[in-house]
UniProtKB/TrEMBL annotation:
It comes from the Bacteria. InterPro entries: P-loop_NTPase, PolyP_AMP_Tfrase, PPK2-related. Gene3D superfamilies: P-loop containing nucleotide triphosphate hydrolases. GO terms for biological process: polyphosphate metabolic process. Signal peptide: none annotated. GO terms for molecular function: polyphosphate:AMP phosphotransferase activity. Pfam families: PPK2. This is Polyphosphate:AMP phosphotransferase.
Amino acid sequence: MFDQFEAQAPLDKESFERQSLALRQQLLEIQFSLENTRHPVIIVLAGLDGAGKGVLVHRLNEWMDPRGIETNTYWEHSDEEESRPYLWRFWRQLPQRGRIGIFLGSWYTQVTQQRVDGTIDDQAVEAFCRRITEFERQLSDDGAIVIKLWLHISQETQRRQLEEKAPRRQQNPRVTDHPYELVGKYQQAMATSKVVIRNTQTFQCPWHIIDGEDRNYREIKAGEIIRDTVIRRIENLEPPAPLEQLPEPQNALASVDLGKSLEKSAYKKQLRKYQAMLQDLAWEGYRQKRSLVAVFEGWDGAGKGSAIRRVTGAIDPRLYKLVQIAAPTDEELAQHYSWRFWRSLQRDGRATLFDRSWYGRVMVERVERFATEAEWSRAYREINEFERELTLHGSIVAKFWIHIDQDEQLTRFRAREQEPYKRHKITDEDWRNREKWPAYETAVNQMIAQTHSEHAPWTLVAGNSKYFARIKILKTLCKAMEQALY
């Protein structure tokens, strides 16, 4: 790619001012036209140190309305970022639909730096690039316009920019001891960048290589690429991706033995045992900085809440957060579906417990048609990629589906109506969902078939006996944590 790169002639001041006047108006019009669309714009500015990325950010904020632009930089790493999966820091700062986010330093920075430093090999770089392309594909599939700009400069230009024009620390105290991490490593950085760009060059999210030697040219060229890319996307000039054809799932729920039960005396004894064990394991996870992410799903009335209370009753309150998922808020609807789950993840060594979860997209949203077929069909792959990111970071992922039959559900619904302190648990929506049992059953079976994996397996819990279900969940959590920690 760089071998075929052609240097561009400098753009004189008069030509720049003439072109920038028209381009500025066009970019403003495009920015305002985005406001009522489902498209966020994500601009990735990459290139070697001294290529003028920061200057270009200033120009884009000058040409467009900065109130609709958020610039994100990642030149310093916080403990908060390092104690969560790598992509968490980027998910939490994605722009809302209709807005623009500029990423100066992005998900490409770490892999490039580590390869130049020699801390990872080419195989690790390629694996990391696959994770990046998955991330960008998820954003693009959801409507994001991902624009990746690489500003290319020669070694001599970099030397001149960094050594001759850069402010000295004595003159500018904001300059750190190591302001340019890749100084003196031009050839190594370029070799790595070629590999990274080649492995992340996709039809959906292509790279645009810009000659960065001349400031006037690079700013006009960058503005034109942004303008043209956004216009193509909002005018729907690109064909939609075809729907994935999913195989018919097996009836996994039929294999659950709902006759399993546990006597109260045995339940109390085992409850004390496994809660004590889980308490110790939670503290060991904290010491080893290994997080637990537990998902609780099941039929309405299956006993998720009571099971979760037995789990939280065993863990120090400082070591967990319970996240209860309901209908998305306006803020959440303005983001990718996965955004609200990424931002809920707790730091290393702590547990995040989800009372309902990202699986709502392939169950409730599918059955009730809150999501399109394209959205819930691709969600299986997105979910698997999300959970793999968790486990790659070292998190322990446990997923429970609490299964009951229709007769048991009816009994529990009626009991809730009769008990004053339980009436808040039963709603008209619960009765409506019950009428759609066959549709939900199909969705659950397909969910299990598509998202059961070695690193994030489903545990199907027989829930007709609440005592049995609670112990099954506690025992499974203890076993999963033991295997991971010892």
